[in-house]
Amino acid sequence: MIARTRMNVYFDPELLKRVEALALRQKVSKSAVVEAAVASFLTGDSAEKLEAAMSRRMDRLGRQIDTLDEDLAVLGETVSLFIRIWLSSTPPLPESAQASARAKGAERFEGFMQSLGRRLATGDRFLKELSRDVDSFDDTPQADQFEPNGDQV
Q1: Is the CB of residue 150 less than 8 Å from the CB of residue 89?
Q2: Which residues of 44-68 are buried (b: 16+ CB within 10 A; e: fewer)?
Q3: Which residues have a Cβ under 8 Å from the Cβ of 74 and sit 6 or more positions away?
Q4: Alpha-carbon span 40 to 36, nearest angstrom
Q5: What burial letters (b/e) apply to 76-91, b meaning 16+ CB within 10 Å?
Q6: pLDDT score, position 58
Q7: Is 52 or 147 the better-scoring residue by pLDDT?
Q8: With contact defined as beta carbons under 8 Å apart, do 130 and 70 qualify?
Q9: Half-sphere CA count of 12, side-chain side, radius 13 A
């Protein structure tokens, strides 16, 4: 039999209850539970814990990358659809109106950039709104049912 040395330790009452409960479940003594916990703390099984933690983190990162990939696809399709519709429905301007149109465009772009900055600062995101709004569009036509000039097919 292995010789053991007695040691008196003090536990928080809640921690002691947890040790007692584990000892009952495992059908071992409280000393065995505490000894195993201290041995685990002092030995090198932290590598296994580190590997398990890294695996969980990698899984979470993988799911986040998948979500980002979906969000990027939605964003790309949204921008390309907007550009296609805008280019096919905007008539060319005569030479006399181009200077004022450029000035108005610069003014509108500045307003757009300020609005974008506010939304990014507050955490409002188009894709979050889109996911909330998609459920409310059950009876409306799909985006791909529209022609570039705005008419339904």
Answers
A1: yes
A2: eeeeeeeeeeeeeeeeeeeeeeeee
A3: 127, 130
A4: 6
A5: eeeeeeeeebeeeeee
A6: 94
A7: 52
A8: no
A9: 3
- For residue 85, give the nearest of 33, 151, 4 by alpha carbon: 151
CA distance 17 to 19: 5
pLDDT of residue 142: 56
Q: Which residues pair with 146 in a beta bridge?
A: 152
pLDDT band at 147 (very low <50, low <70, confident <90, very high): low
Mean pLDDT score across all residues of the chain? 83
**What are the domain boundaries of the chain?**
13-43, 45-89, 100-133
pLDDT of residue 153 exceeding 50: no
> Rounded to the nearest 5°, which phi and psi values hold at 124?
-70, 130
* Confidence band, pLDDT 50/70/90 cuts, at residue 137: low
